[in-house]
Specification:
The chain has nine helices and twelve strands. By secondary structure, the chain is an alpha+beta fold. It folds into three domains: 50 residues, no CATH class; 118 residues, CBS-domain, CATH 3.10.580.10; 84 residues, Uridine Diphospho-n-acetylenolpyruvylglucosamine Reductase, domain 3, CATH 3.30.465. The strands form three sheets. It has a five-stranded antiparallel beta sheet with strand order 8-9-12-11-10, with helices on one face. Strand 3 and strand 4 form a beta hairpin. It is globular and about 65 Å long.
Amino acid sequence: MDPDSKPGFIERLTTLLLREPEDRAQLIQILHNAHERQLMDADALTIIEGALAASDTRVADVMIPRAQMGVIDIDAPLADILSVAIATAHSRFPVIDGDRDDVLGILLAKDLLRVRDQASFVLRDWLRPAVFIPESKRLNVLLREFRVSRNHMAIVVDEFGSVAGLVTIEDVLEQIVGDIADEYDFDETHDNIRRDSAGRYRVKAHTTIADFNTAFATHFSDAEFDTVGGLLLHHLGYVPKRNESAVIDGLRFQVLRADSRRLYTLLVDPLPPAENGAKPEAD
């Protein structure tokens, strides 16, 4: 090697790691030191920390709960199935027996494109086998199983064999690399609450009630729910679709981004007194 050439990333990182950390805490500290010395960027550090944490994270900690799962009934007609697939834009749907709430299999949205004779369509004939996993399974193990089996979704069951929720490969990857953003996500350099040019506020659904109350001078209680998304879910009693709205204590909450499982981004617009039901002040 040319003595005048600078060592590469791997050589520099290897030199740093030769200190032989005694436990994970020391390893993470070494990695943070490497970041501070610009031997790795912030994204690389985040991914490594996420990969290390995956071995300590249970499926139950990241799954979509049963109450928020988007499912299709085995007896649903094709027209209803197509409507659900188009509205949610999901690629996979657990199919259940509505009477017993058992998951019978998984329907792939792309398989619906192959249906030629709608009159003779039988949903049961199009099901793929469902993968069932316990709540206690660790994410690193599940990710390896996803890769080997090429499955992208697993049904989570509790100790009694009842469906507790579902988890997808995206849910697992987001624990390692961070949120997988789309066009409706905020730039990570912004706070959870951001004002737009029209004077309305884009609010991430996971914003805490305390932070929301501080920003909007409101007094919502956090006794029953911790986040703004939880506040809206509690008010409506179901998971709203994109563009649905509700007025709560003088604020209009409009859903900007959501799926059948969870809320992601809300548009919050303070209403004038004439619209929120308040009486106009006397002259």
